[in-house]
Design goal:
By secondary structure, this protein is of the alpha+beta class. The protein has 21 helices and 23 strands. Strand 1 (3-5) and strand 2 (8-13) form a beta hairpin.
Length: 676
Amino acid sequence: MAKPHPAAPDWLLLPPDEQQLETGWVGYRHVSGALHWHHAASEEDRLSAAIVFPTPADDDSGITHALEHMVLRGSARYPEPDTFLTLRAELALLEFNATTQKESTRFHLTGYDPHSVLRGIGFMADSVLAPQLADDDFDDEIVRESGDNFEGALYRELGEYMRHERFQQSTEQAAMSEPRAPLYGGMPETVPLLGINDLRRYHNHYYRPESMVILTSGSWPMVALWRQISKSLSNVGKPLPTEVPKLSLQAHVASENHAFVETFSYSPHWAAALYPTLCSLRNQQIMKAHGAALLPLITDFQPVPALRFRLDDNADLEALHLHVDEVAKRMPSRRVNWQSGYFSLQQGRDMVRRWGDGLQRLYHDFSVTPFAPPFLKGDVSEPLLEEAQLSMANAEWLSPCKPLTRMAILCRCNARDEDTKASLERWLILCQQRTLRWAWMQGQPVLGSMGEWHCANALVLGYTVDLPLEQVNTLRHFWHNHLSADEINVLDGEWQHTQNGIEFYVTQSTPVFRAGSIMASHKDEEGAMHVTLSFPHTVEAGDIATFGQAVMASEMVKKRRLGGRCYSFGVSIDLMTYELAFDTVADSDPSVSFVALLNAMEGLTKPMENSELEKRCQGGLGLVSARYRKSHARFHTALLGTVGQPSAVDFTVVTPISLAQIASDVLTALKHPTVH
């Protein structure tokens, strides 16, 4: 029998037969029906949370994508449409966003500050359960007719996607496939056919407490968390007797090829294993002779790995099947496991890049539990045994990728010393070759890449390896015992074997710190504005980050985004180069965005109140954390350490006067920018 929590009686501990304690998860149910799964066994020091709803999409209308945008435009407790942007600029969060998947919509966040994550989860809970869904907000956020054209943030976002060749190819492949994959994010020609009432009816049916799944990990203050969510759940009534909109909208996707797409019935693991081999030149020539061309393994609209072929009118389908089957029979099981595992690592890395490793771990750890609903369940099939199910070809899919960590070999040299740079590059390539050979002998694939980072006169060269946590100690032991300084002993320098890998500092490569004035670069291009500010190292990093978030919190900048004139208006910080960058995406008029940016900075030249400054400092902390702690935090700390920069930024030194002075100095620099 479910037992109420003493301090939160509207939350019930699930009975033993509904629990999954053996997996480290504890389940709770709100009296409204909402489920909360907490990963009690997690050793994470960061706090991660997600609110997930099943949101099936069977057409190209983009209704689920549009609703994701709209629910963040104001709610019962937070009626102002700019609250989301305000919180992004003042909360110390690593990630604070939402995403539309094939069969679900996810609202998620991660952070280290309990105050910030509680405010964030409270806002998201109220947004998804009690949104305003106002007509005016629909016009700005989704689409509105403007003369002979359309405006709106979502409409501009889709227009930006359509400029990319890969997205165009994905839409074409999805439209040609059988069964046809829905373009669930929407298309520029279908989104204008949506109306606010369609979104209201869809929300009324699917955004229900009984459908909601809450996932958390980390040391959350549970009672405070439940109270935040309960405030929103307590005001949700019964669903209204409205029908789910049956839109059935399909976009017309132009194609130069009048062929059709054939999907082969291999499991996702087998498809991922066979794909690299089929991509070889010899196999491509054979397939071409059979009238077939291999298509991408996955696309934006077809997330499940599958072997798909474009067939021309004279294709020999039987011969193609025989050839692919023959390739599969000739592949050793070691190669199958390697290539399938390598693909899973790539998928995991993509999740980390998109959401950070906190959310990647949260979703993965829950996906392998027995009680995960279909729209959150990961693929745990055995690659050599499972048969494919064509019915899942267009379903939502989560690769069975365990949490990743990053090891690195970092070498610092003088940026002008080309001979030393060449020697280090040759040695790093040798390290890469030996590491890949080691990984093959271990039967455990890894993801490796070369990197180059600049900081004033110092140059950092590196080889990074992303791999599952359980392999870290073995790789570290291999590096520390098989890679030595003897191979580049002509270089005078200092070696360090660290927990994160190896660091090598060439003599006379000590970084210098730039002095002088702020340098500004401004570039406008079609659909985008770019402004980069390069600061001298005499300026406190805390002032720079706080200034960036203070600009983003200004009414001028928020109005530019909320008015639907651009898809996004963002800021980023780079402590390696001491740069702050402002960028817009899918911008209807970049020059107007630049004027809005200048006006926002002008407003900061007067000292602000201490209470306001505290919010901006908190936001600045979030800006730095999102760059250096969202994923691979230990690696970024080590990377900054090679050039004498700390990842921990001091915000106690920021004052109203120092912030106002930076704003004045930036405006002076922007009067004479380097225009590209």
